[in-house]
Design brief:
Structural class: alpha+beta
Largest sheet: 8 strands, mixed, barrel
Bound molecules: ligand C2E, magnesium ion
Strand content: 15-25%
């Protein structure tokens, strides 16, 4: 584009330059031709004037002589001789009609009895014309007295009206030499010759460029044949003509103009070469100037173009590539991925992630983590080629678009890829066991419709599959399938409807009884939330609590549930029933909320219920962080009358040691114990469980066992000395009203 532009500009400039040059050249030529014409005319008119003046002198003498006594043998000769001495003529002659004449030649004696026939033909001719009554000038002829060519003026001499004789005067052509020396011709750039018939030189200017001796202008090779022909023709017609000749490789322009006497011509030569050289020089200078400008423009354009290209490349790079690894970025990937979907070819999208990358960053440092990312990029470069591509999104998340869709092949390929990446720690002599995980979406037949939208959806699916693969402790991969799809749909629903659900009361209070094993009676209840969706379907806490803990909504939900519980207890009291203690699950986020104890107390006050009816269930994970801080919080809550229970004890990393250090009121043994006991004939789990129960007893804590599903479960935990049992054996979690009806009014538990 830029090049075309420059070429166009260049061509335009050259054309302008050329046209200007030609115009300049023609203008200069026209001007110099005109100047030649003007000056030649001027010279012709001066010659003419000179001749007229000479004629006038001669005619005056003729009148004078016509009145004289013309006795040729007497004083007349003397009169003629004296007259000749006074004027500039070389000689003067007088011929009476029908007789011989006399001749006076300056510096010579007067000759008498000169026969007309003795004179050269040219002289005889004009004298005869004068005798016939006509003034004229002769052609040039060789003078007998001077070694030069001369010409003759002749005028008739009248006595009254009768021609009585002819008066003639000769002069040499040098009379014009001062006119023709040519110093001022064309301002010094030219010269003039005077020519006779046939182009013979009459007067040859000393300033001539051609210095060789020549008779006529046509001698030598100077006039080209056609030019010479043109000149000859014009001379024959007594017309002016412009012509040119070559001399020493240069062309000279000339003008040949008739003088109007005897076929004489003036040739005015312009040292045209000089003028044209000036034009040529100007054209050349202009050409160079234009060329310079052109090169400058070209340079600027190319420079500008390169700078813009470089900037564009950099902009493109920063817009589409990741500075750290040099891999494409998400934007570029999405573009290409969308194009692939549009083309309808089968493909698979893989999301690859490093497990605990945050930890690697913190423990090994940013530089090490960056090197790991670059290493992953280099391995991906080796594994992915052709029409496949990948990108690094943010942090340690890589997306791969592969053209392979067979599950097993893909699994094997990704496993070997992950194995290679894991080599990084070996190469860097680190003991850390690096693991990776992948989420995969197979797109066998890309769905119809908006490809950009599909790309967004598929990328969300792959992240969902990735999240599902995260849980493992080794390299793992997870395919996005129908089940995951449902799960993802539900999560999307949960996240987008949670606030609305809270406002419309979609979160319902369910209660599950806690059975007092000693008294064989209802020992309390646990509040468990159920979400009744718009379509009436029940959504269970496992499907949304982890998400709410992640997005912080659990704080609002737990307080909401707490208020539901308080309202329920208030209702029991108002109904005249003896309220039972209710355990309420508390998320970690709520537990560490500032003013958490005050908030709870305000709720108790609002419904006027004693705090000791509320047991706060916290997860054992809390104890992992800071036992002292946790104890401090527990004591604050206990001081306000609340009971604190540790939920799901035994499901994680908790130890008996932790149990000993916490000032809790109750420990709930995870249902995992009962499950494990069933599959453990050696009785190790049973031993551990009974140790926990015993220790809790020693520490003054109540013990509740979760997941009591059978009578034998109950018998087992009773034998162990547990205080309470909770599980389907007694009841599933049921709506609060049903619980009231079943366990408070009818006292259904026996
Ligand atoms: P959790 O506190 O350990 O609650 C006990 C869970 O075990 C309940 O599941 C209950 O239905 C289930 N369960 C009880 N007996 C049996 C049994 O005999 N067999 C089996 N297989 N399961 C039994 P649910 O209601 O789905 O609650 C799951 C978890 O969700 C709860 O575990 C609790 O951690 C959390 N959760 C429930 N409601 C709330 C809430 O309001 N706030 C918070 N933060 N978490 C809640
Ligand atoms: Mg619980
Ligand atoms: Mg539990």
């Amino acid at each position: 584009m830029a090049i075309t532009f420059v070429v166009c500009i260049g061509a335009a400039l050259l054309v302008v330059c050329g046209v200007l040059g030609v115009y300049l050249r023609n203008t200069i030529r026209q001007a110099s031709n005109q100047q030649m014409l003007n000056e030649t005319d001027e010279y012709i008119s001066r010659i003419d004037k000179q001749i007229q003046a000479d004629f006038q002198t001669l005619e005056t003498l003729a009148i004078f002589m016509g009145q004289q006594e013309r006795d040729l043998s007497g004083s007349f000769g003397q009169v003629l001789h004296e007259a000749n001495q006074r004027n500039d003529f070389i000689s003067m002659l007088y011929f009476p009609v029908g007789q011989n004449g006399i001749a006076s030649i300056v510096d010579h004696a007067l000759q008498t009895d000169v026969a007309l026939q003795s004179l050269p033909d040219e002289a005889q001719e004009v004298i005869r014309q004068a005798l016939a009554g006509e003034s004229s000038i002769s052609r040039l002829f060789k003078s007998e007295y001077a070694d030069e060519r001369v010409f003759l003026y002749a005028v008739p001499v009248y006595d009254e009206d009768r021609v009585v004789g002819a008066l003639a005067a000769s002069d040499h052509v040098e009379i014009f030499s001062d006119i023709l020396d040519g110093n001022g011709v064309l301002g010094g750039n030219g010269y003039i010759h005077m020519l006779g018939t046939e182009g013979k030189y009459l007067i040859r200017s000393q300033r001539a460029v051609v210095t060789e001796p020549m008779e006529t202008i046509f001698d030598g090779p100077y006039f080209a044949a056609d030019e010479a022909e043109g000149v000859r023709l014009a001379m024959a017609r007594q017309e002016s003509v412009f012509s040119s000749f070559q001399y020493q490789g240069r062309t000279y322009q000339c003008l040949l103009a008739p003088v109007g006497i005897n076929g004489w011509y003036l040739i005015c030569v312009n040292t045209m070469q000089e003028s044209s050289r000036a034009a040529y020089q100007i054209t050349r200078v202009m050409g160079f100037a234009f060329l310079g400008i052109l090169i400058l423009i070209l340079f600027l354009l190319i420079y500008g173009y390169t700078v813009i290209r470089k900037n564009n490349r950099e902009l493109f790079y920063s817009a589409y590539y990741d500075r750290l690894t040099g891999a494409a970025n998400r934007k570029r990937f999405v573009q290409r991925f969308t194009e692939c979907l549009e083309s309808g070819q089968p493909l698979s999208l893989v999301a690859l992630n490093v497990r605990n990358f945050k930890f690697i960053n913190e423990i090994f440092g940013k530089e090490y983590a960056d090197r790991l990312l670059c290493f992953i990029k280099s391995i991906l470069d080796q594994h992915i080629s052709g029409t496949e591509f990948f990108c690094r999104d943010s942090s340690d998340l890589f997306y791969l678009c592969l053209k392979q869709t067979d599950r097993d092949g893909l699994r094997a390929r990704l496993e070997s890829l992950m194995d290679e990446i894991v080599q990084f720690t070996e190469q860097s002599h680190s003991d850390y066991r690096l693991t990776l995980y992948c989420g995969i979406v197979l797109v066998d037949t890309p769905p119809e419709g908006d490809a950009a939208r599909q790309a967004t959806d598929i990328m969300a699916h792959v992240l969902f599959a990735l999240a599902s693969a995260k849980g493992s402790y080794q390299n793992s991969l997870w395919f996005y399938d129908a089940q995951l799809h449902e799960k993802e749909k539900l999560e999307n629903y949960v996240e987008s409807h949670m606030q609305q659900a809270l406002e419309t009361g979609a979160f319902r209070l369910f209660l599950q009884p806690k059975f007092d094993l000693k008294n064989k009676s209802l020992g309390g209840a646990e509040a468990l939330v159920r979400w009744i969706a718009d379509d009436g379907r029940v959504i269970y806490p496992d499907q949304f609590i982890p998400l709410f803990e992640h997005n912080g909504f659990s704080v609002q939900l737990d307080l909401y549930m707490m208020e539901c519980v308080c309202r329920q207890i208030r209702q029991w009291i108002d109904q005249g029933l003896t309220p039972v203690g209710v355990s309420v699950n508390q998320s970690k986020l709520l537990f560490y909320e500032s003013h958490y104890p005050e908030t709870l107390t305000r709720l108790m006050d609002k419904y006027s219920i004693p705090a000791n009816l509320i047991t706060l269930e916290i997860l054992e994970g809390l104890a992992l962080e800071n036992v002292d801080e946790l104890n401090h919080k527990i004591e604050q809550l206990q001081a306000r009358g609340f009971r604190v229970s540790m939920d799901d004890f035994g499901s994680g990393y908790s130890s008996l040691n932790t149990l000993g250090r916490l000032n809790i009121d109750e420990v709930k043994l995870d249902r995992g114990f009962l499950l494990e006991i069933a599959g453990d004939p050696q009785g190790r789990t049973r031993l551990i469980m009974s140790q926990v129960v015993e220790l809790a007893g020693h520490l003054g804590m109540d013990t509740v066992v979760e997941g009591v599903e059978t009578a034998s479960d109950e018998a087992l935990i009773t034998a162990m000395g547990c205080g309470y049992g909770q599980g389907y054996y007694y009841s599933r979690p049921i709506p609060a009203a049903e619980f009231t009806e079943k366990f408070m009014i009818a006292s259904g538990i026996e």
